[in-house]
Amino acid sequence: MDKLMTSTDASNSAQQDKTQTRFLTMWQVVFLVISAAAPLTGMLGAVPPAISLGNGAGIPGAYVIAGAVLLVFSVGYASMSRHVTRAGAFYAYITAGLGRPAGMAGALVALASYTFIQVALFGLFGFFCNEIISPLFHVAVPWFAYSILCLGMVQVLGIRGIDLNSRVLGVLMCLEMGILLLLSVAIVVHGGGPSGLTSAPLEPKLVLSGHLGIAVMFAFASFIGFEATAIFGKECRDPSVTVPRATYVSVVLILVFFAFVTWAIVCAYGVGEVTEIANKVPGNFWFIQSDRHLGPLATTSMSYLLLTSIFASLLSFHNTIVRYIHGLAVDGMLPRALTRLHRKHRSPYIASYVQTLSVCVLVVPFIFAGSDPYGVMFSWGAALGTVGIVFLQAATSLAVAAFFRRTRKDTRVWNAFVAPVLGTVGLLGVGVILLRNLKVLSGSDSPIVQSFPWLLLAIAVLGFVVALVVRSRRPDIYEQFGQ
């Protein structure tokens, strides 16, 4: 009877998947994943410390290096997406290449990493709302009130379906990238700053100066989110075409945009002065130039767009995590109830509620502890999540090489072997930089922060053990995992 029920549940789940309308276009997927990267938040938050603590005026080159490594990673990742179409892309790829225990370890690390990034962003949203909205309306509202309101809005939109989400995120993404692009073009039109418009920020002499590793570390943190393209494969019209294209477009678009915008801001301040200014006024680093080139109204608009940028990133990560939960439920690793789709919106609504609840469970302790929403909640959560995602990307790249080596489904040397191996090496190198500079990335030398690598390792080991236990007790579920 149990086997019959399991078979029926799986059939119903499969039927639900088939009834989903596959309506996502390439650009809708791009909107979803670039919104997670939050270009405006990344530029305003990561660039000043990357300049002051990293390679100074050579910061555009750091973004080019980070983008190049991820572009190489994307070659194997995109090739794999033609053969494995699953909601949990990371763990599905790792399972296919390195086995089910490694895949389960990857699944838990992915869930933890994305969830902690989302917790970090809720803290950041509350912090900036307190800085921007409270003074405007002359109200004294605790930061977490804004975070809770945002949590509710994300939940409502999360249930409404991926098509609506992609349209909302598309509008918000265009607005936040538009204001940065407008500022950059204005800087170019005005001929830059003291040094004029110069190619020096992209020349090896400046790019390799200072602490390049720290600059690349912040640059990588700005890219987190693009890898979610494969997660939405089942909701695309033609995943084998849409996902690879969306992956390449996302990486190239982010790379070119970040490199151009950071080059423009360096030119605006001058090669010789930009490091000192980034160190002295990190909070107003971008707003000073916005006031100068676009006027106070544009600066005010940029501050409000910062809030929508964070909201867009939260909504995008919500969709990503929900699809991981749904994928694990379809595989039988989580309760079958999580596979249910909303009758009207066709979204995994129960998984959506569970994801929101899991974030609440993690946010509440920060509130009761009176933690700084920026210095602790955001900085610590973002550091933990970034480390986890970078090592997951490395494991995925290795899994891609192993998969094609074993199956010979793609015999192209560059796509199936060289690029995945180079991607693995590059990402492991970045991972080591992250671990060595965890204090800088998190802004804290707390023993709790120093334990983050061990926490991620423990989560991975737990996933490995869970897979072995399932293999022993429920071989039927084990065999369907990640397939």
From TrEMBL:
One of its GO terms (molecular function) is transmembrane transporter activity. It is found in: Cell membrane. Signal peptide: none annotated. Keywords: Cell membrane, Membrane, Transmembrane, Transmembrane helix. It is a multi-pass membrane protein. Pfam families: AA_permease_2. The chain crosses the membrane at residues 21-41, 61-80, 101-128, 140-159, 171-192, 212-233, 245-271, 304-326, 347-368, 380-404, 416-436, 448-470. One of its GO terms (cellular component) is plasma membrane. This is Amino acid permease. The lineage of its organism: Bacteria, Pseudomonadati, Pseudomonadota, Betaproteobacteria, Burkholderiales.
